[in-house]
Design brief:
The structure is a single chain. Strand 1 and strand 2 form a beta hairpin. Helix content is 38%, strand content 25%. By secondary structure, it is an alpha/beta fold. It contains 8 helices and 10 strands. The strands form 2 sheets. It has a 6-stranded mixed sheet with strand order 6-7-8-3-9-10, with helices on both faces. It folds into 2 domains: 226 residues, P-loop containing nucleotide triphosphate hydrolases (Rossmann fold), CATH 3.40.50; 30 residues. It is globular, with a radius of gyration of 19 Å. It binds adenosine-5'-triphosphate (ATP). The site of adenosine-5'-triphosphate has 12 residues, from strand 2 and helix 1. GO terms for molecular function: ATP binding; ATP hydrolysis activity. It holds the Pfam family ABC_tran. It comes from Propionicimonas paludicola.
């Protein structure tokens, strides 16, 4: 059993709104799966069902090969970040993490390790409520990672991060995947998953409309753009990417080649 997440005909209906509408997903061990869709496509609703926070209208969810049920043991093996960053605003970064460490029974050293890993060292004693949005997001990611989960379920992990932060988080997720952690991440921005995900599933109106490896999807996209856009339009798109690289080169020490 190599699938870490499997859903079959998964659906969630809110009256007439079919937020998720017959979703078959297989996320393999050790891969980074990019779950890509526009606003309202059904990403968060899917993630809520994967975590057992809401009940499907129909269909099944299996995590680590087992249906998610009343036994919450499997949740210990999962790290998650759902919607916007959350933390106790009046507790310091370190205190927030320490609390989570105790709750999850993670090793003593885990708090300092994630503080360093997420670049939060200089903010460790600052109250979470006073952090910038980007650092709040780092704190949420730190909390998701603290107990060394085997599976990370991340809803829009790059939210609020600046381009340099996105590159850093991307490096971190790649490192984790290389060490065997499975990552399921949602996004509405292709660029965010295009350089990172091993496989990409495109969700629209609660259904999977396309699923492919990154290379396959890139090849399909190139063929589509070549056939459907003028040379000028293609040049405009390249200009945006070049400007982003130039911006990174001028404003920090992130290597624009990592983009
Ligand atoms: N509790 C709810 N009651 C009614 N409709 C809901 C509820 N939750 C989600 N929806 C609807 O289901 C659809 C999918 O929402 P969902 O939040 O899963 O999308 P999303 O892909 O995560 O979008 P976003 O990127 O904007 O967060 C939307 O039309 C949304 O309005």
């Amino acid at each position: 059993m190599n699938d870490v997440i499997t859903t079959e005909a998964l659906a969630k209906h809110y009256g007439r709104v079919h937020a998720v509408d017959g979703l078959d997903l297989q996320v393999r061990r050790g891969e980074i799966y990019g779950f890509l869709g526009r606003n309202g496509a059904g990403k968060t609703t899917t993630i809520r069902m994967l975590l057992g926070l809401i009940k499907p209208t129909s269909g099944t969810v299996r995590v680590f090969g087992e249906p998610i049920g009343t036994d919450q043991e499997w949740l210990r093996r999962v790290g998650f970040l759902v919607e916007s960053a959350t933390a106790y605003p009046n507790l310091a970064v370190r205190e927030n993490l320490e609390l989570h460490r105790r709750l999850t029974g993670a090793a003593h050293s885990a708090t300092e390790t994630v503080i360093e890993r997420l670049g939060l060292t200089e903010y460790a004693d600052r109250r979470a409520g006073r952090l910038s949005l980007g650092n709040k997001q780092r704190l949420s990611l730190a909390r998701a990672l603290l107990h060394s989960p085997e599976l990370l379920i991340l809803d829009e992990p790059a939210n609020a991060l600046d381009p340099a932060g996105i590159v850093e988080v991307r490096g971190l997720l790649r490192e984790l995947a290389n060490s065997g952690v499975t990552v399921f991440m949602s996004s509405h921005i292709l660029a965010e998953v295009a350089h990172l995900a091993d496989r990409i599933g495109i969700v629209h109106d609660g259904r999977l409309v396309e699923e492919a490896s990154r290379n396959e999807l890139a090849a399909r996209a190139r063929a589509y753009v070549r056939d459907s856009f003028t040379a000028d339009e293609r040049e405009q798109a390249l200009l945006t990417a070049d400007l982003e690289r130039y911006f990174l080169a001028r404003t920090g020490d992130t290597d624009p080649k990592e983009l």
